[in-house]
Amino acid sequence: MPIIDAYCGIGPWGARDPLLPYTAEEYLPLMDACGVERALIYGRAVADYGWPPDANTLVVEIARAHPRFIPAFTLFAHAHAREHTVVQYLDEMQAAGARAAWLWPVPGSGSLLWVHEEIYARCEELRIPLFISALRFGPDDLDKICTAFPRLRLVLAGAHYTADHWLYPLFRRHAELRLCYGHQYVSSQALERFTHEFDARRLLFGSGLPDFSPGSMVGMAQYAKLTDEEKELILGGNLETLLAEVCYA
Amino acid sequence: MPETLLEYGRAGRALDSLPVIDIHGHYGAIAHCATLSLEEQVAMMDRVGINVAILSSISGLKSDVRAGNDALQAAISRYPGRLYGYIYLSANYPEFIEGELARFADDPAFVGIKVYQNGIPFTDPRFDPAWRGARERGLPVLAHTWGGNLTGFDTVAAQYPEVPFIAAHAGSDFNYRAYIDAAQHTPNLYLDLTYSREHTNMIPHFVAQLGAERLVWGSDIPLFSMAQQISKVLFAPIGEAEKRMILGENAMRVFGGRIRVRS
Questions:
Q1: Which of A76, A131, A242, B213 has the fewest C-beta atoms under 10 angstroms from its C-beta?
Q2: What is the pTM of this model?
């Protein structure tokens, strides 16, 4: 049963606390200890205004050097003509063999559906799983995105343990929305309750590295009162399916 | 058969080779989290391998101090030897502090005092009867703290060196330095690792800076998953002996002979 971390930032960033790792060489023994076989990586610096093309180059290089890492591209809706277009990002992504994307919009612009609609449309069309953080998108933003793009495979990471009062109604409304339970969706019986309500196929394991360690997230699933099949889906199978179903042609 | 505690965590297997004491749990319901019956809480303890949990009353914290302690006493009496209680004392209702101590301190199921700053710092004189009561009755004190702001808890701990003071949510918001500084200057201050997130390398850093003997573990049940919270320790890159201390041996020492762990 391969465990694959769906929520893993990598690489240096400016405001890093010295306790936190950032290199592949630091991550690999940590992954080994936690039983994590592979990790879907994005460039951590983009969460702090880092330049997305640089982050994408970094993760491709890391993935080439260390096959246990799977590159995810960061997409961005640049304002100016001289900068990357969405088509350019996607062409580079395809050339690099990347099959998942992250969107880290400028704080406050997650609510601007029309700013990012080309990204949503293209990811929906190509069946690219698009990861976003609850730190940048509010519940209403998510509802608007999923309503406008009902077949978009949106994966929400970073939801708080108190989020169920909006998260459950949201997941009832939008069938293609997935939840990555890292790093703080940790209420008691959260995984069992979600699986019972929505199906294990909509739940993904992710750690939130480098800021948050994988161990407690792995343990949460392993101790959960779920079937082995459900655990396999959550811990890696669902991500593998999402990546396999990307259709660039 | 797992051999190391890490292997237990990776297998999702109930711990059975050491005393495990959850020093920070709750009884009752809170509006922004799913409800959990007491039976479900104890079932989860069995699933993970937790011998004992020490609970405080949510309704006492959120509304009625005395009714909350009463409800807790009734609840824990249903699981003698598995569930213990904290007497919740509030400086927001200082008129009840001595009475609540008198009502519960002789009940062997109540093994400590729980406090929460609720807008009043722990150094406020309205809390003084709680500290005196802790000293007179030999009761450890668990206090909610957050984000590196101990709200005077370490100052008070220094004034009562014979009492174990436990600062909850150590390292919250990744403000670990304040907790380490406080504990380094206050020998009777312990750090409780109960906290939703698992910041990478924070637990090993606490161990390196303070020694594992100053750390205790809790789950914040029903708010958090016991499995997720205990896995923070099971998967931490620290020694086996350190994990055993954090998960139960330290609590056995801190709570003296008040807690008995059945094999």
A1: B213
A2: 0.97
